[in-house]
Amino acid sequence: MLATLKEILPEAYRKRRAVGAFNVANYEAALGVIRAAEREKLPAIIQIFQRLFLSEKGSDLAGTLLRMAHRCSQPIVVHLDHGGSAEIVRAALAAGCSSVMFDGSMLEFEKNAELTKYAADCAHALGASCEGEIGHVAMGDENAITTVEDAVRFHSATGVDALAVSIGTVHGFYKSKPKIDAARCAEIAAALPSVPLVLHGGTGTPPEDLRAVIENGVSKVNIATEFMDTFLKSTRRELEALGDNFLPIDKFMDPVVDDCAAHAARLMRFFAGK
Ligand code: 13P
């Protein structure tokens, strides 16, 4: 069933669990997440990166994901990841996404708060949910760690349903072992006791660090790079095995869907403390 962050994260937060949020750009990877949710009887978040909404890809994919979410017996959130402008947020909501993120984490505090509040108001008017980010989770190694004061001010200025914080993770594969600030996470959660926190840059984060932040308020963990890597490696393996033979494309992709489902299920179980 289609769900919003508001419907699934508060319960996860209370139980000190997290829901996996997987970035997808095609049907087969999304099918892997849906099958994992069915198999594990757990909710999931499927995310579309904002760039896809610069062409027809975003709304075409959202339409497919919505249909898959409605068919699934578990709550599935169809979410815009890293929305970078009001236009993108409106495009994702118009395409039926049940949730959006506005990412103004590179902007000045006031501008970030103003644009995020606009995104949250648009989402809430349509019954959708909204995530914002304060502090900045970088692509490389330079992070701006979120302060407790900024997190509290930002949440009260925007009314977001979930708050992405920067506590030491980075996007993509790590070049060296990350230093995750679980203590900062706990302080933010203590100051905002009813606000589910979001961890970006989940790929490669050591399990003990993931466990520590989930126990301290993180209830949505974003996974992109390692999930796409599974999709690509699995596709390459199947192509190589195929050689010059012909196999219908749906059969060719079946093992890739299985690998994506296994990857998503493993993480979903871990995030749920199973
Ligand atoms: P990774 O690519 O590091 O998993 O980060 C994903 C993410 O945060 C998407 O918003």
Protein described:
The protein is an alpha/beta fold and 274 residues long. It has a single domain (2-271), classed as Aldolase class I (TIM Barrel, Alpha-Beta Barrel), CATH 3.20.20. 50% of the residues lie in helices and 16% in strands. It has ten helices and nine strands. The chain has an eight-stranded parallel β-barrel, surrounded by eight helices. Helix 2 packs across helix 10. The site of 1,3-dihydroxyacetonephosphate (13P) has 13 residues, from strand 4 and strand 9.
C-alpha Rg, in Å? 18 Å
Summarize the helix and strand pattern as letters.
Answer: EHEHEHEHEHEHEHEHEHH
Strand adjacency order, main sheet:
2-3-4-5-6-7-8-9
Ligands, deduplicated: 1,3-dihydroxyacetonephosphate
CATH topology: TIM Barrel
User: How many distinct domains?
Assistant: 1
Total DSSP helices: 10
The end-to-end distance, rounded to whole angstroms, is 22 Å
Structural class: alpha/beta
**Top-tier CATH class:** Alpha Beta
- CATH evolutionary superfamily: Aldolase class I
SS elements, strand count: 9
Largest β sheet strand count, sense and barrel closure? 8 strands, parallel, barrel
Low-confidence stretches: none
| Mean pLDDT across residues | 97
